[in-house]
Fold each of these.
Amino acid sequence: MSWESSALYYELINEAVKERLGGLHSARAVLASVDFAEIERMQSAGAWDEAGEALAGEARRLEAAGAELIVLCTNTMHKVAGAIEAAVPIPLLHLGDVTAEAVRAAGLGTVGLLGTRFTMEQDFYRDRMAGHGLTVLVPEEKDRDDVHRIIYEELVLGEVREESRARYAEVIAGLAARGAEGVVLGCTEIELLVRPEDSPVPVFPTTRLHATAAVDRALAD
C-alpha cells in the first residue's frame, strides 16, 4: 500500500518481463496507487469493511482500464481480498497462496511470519497458509511490537536503519529457535530491510515471490 513497496513491485515485474521476453520488452501494467494515509486510518480504526469497499472500487477501475489479473501489493490488505474478488470477475493472485506454495516447494513445513500486527495476530493470513498444510509461528508480543513499529515508523517512509535490521535479525533468530525452518517476510516493505544473510534459516520475500508469480501467470498463454 505504500509507494515504497509499490515501486519495488513495479521494478521486479518489469525486470522479470525483460528477463523472459528479452529485448526492449516491459510489462503492460495498470497501476492504482492509493493514498496510504487513508488506508492506514482504516486499519487503525478497524474499518475493514470500508477498506474493502475502497479497494474493490480500485479493482473495478483496473478492470475498466483493461487489467486481466489483479495483484494486491500488500500482505495486510489481503484481509479484504474477498471484497475485491466479489467486485470483479478477473482473478486476484492471492499473496498467501503464492507464499505458501513457495514454502512447500522448498520442502518446509513450519515457518515464522513477520508482518504488521494485523498480519501476525489475525487469522486471515495464517489460516490461508495453514490451508496449504503449513505450521505458522509468530513472534512473541514484544517482538511483534517492534516489528510492527519499524514497518510503520520507518520502512513505509523509506527509512532503512542498521539497528532495525539487527532487531529483525534477533526476532528471526528467536523464531528459528522455536522451530521455524524458514521465515516469511509477510509485509512488502520488510524486503527493504531484511536480507538473506540476516537470517539463519531461508527467507521467503513475499514481494519478489508475488511479482514473479504475477509474471508467470500473465505470460502463461
Amino acid sequence: MTKPEKAARVAPSVLVGIGAFAAVGVYVLVSSIELGLWTSLGPGPGLFPFAMGAVLAAMAAVWLIQELRRPSETVEGVDRALVLAVVLSLTILAALMDLLGFQVSMFLFLVYHLKLRGRRTWLSSLITALAGSVGAFYAFNYGLNVTLPVSVFPLLNTIGL
C-alpha cells in the first residue's frame, strides 16, 4: 500500500505577499476614483491609476489561484542582504533624483541592479538601463505630460538631462 502524498500548503509568507499586493491594488482603485476617472474633456487624472490598481488587484487574484492550485516552494528565511540592498538603493535613488535628475539617477539605479545585483553583461546592463531611464523619461514627460526632475547641474541640464 502506498503512502498518501502530503497535501501542499501555501506558505504564510506567500499569503502575506498576495495580501499586500491585493491591498495596494484596492487602495489605488479607491483613491483613484476620488481623483475622477473622466472629465468633460476626456480621461481624468484618476483613470491611469485606476487601471493600474485594477491590474495589481487582478495580478494578486491570479497569483492566489496559482498558489492554491500548486504552491510554490519557499525557502525558509529572508535574504536580508537583498532586502537591504533594494531598500538602500531606492533610498539613494530618491535622494539623488532632485540633484542628478530622473534620467541619470534612474540609469545608475538600473545599472546597479542589472550589472552588480543581477550579474548581467556590461553591454546588456548599459543598453537596458539607457533604454529604461531615457525611455521612461520621454514617455512620462512627453507622452503623459508628467514632469520628471531634471539635473540641477548646468552641464547636465544643457544636454537635456
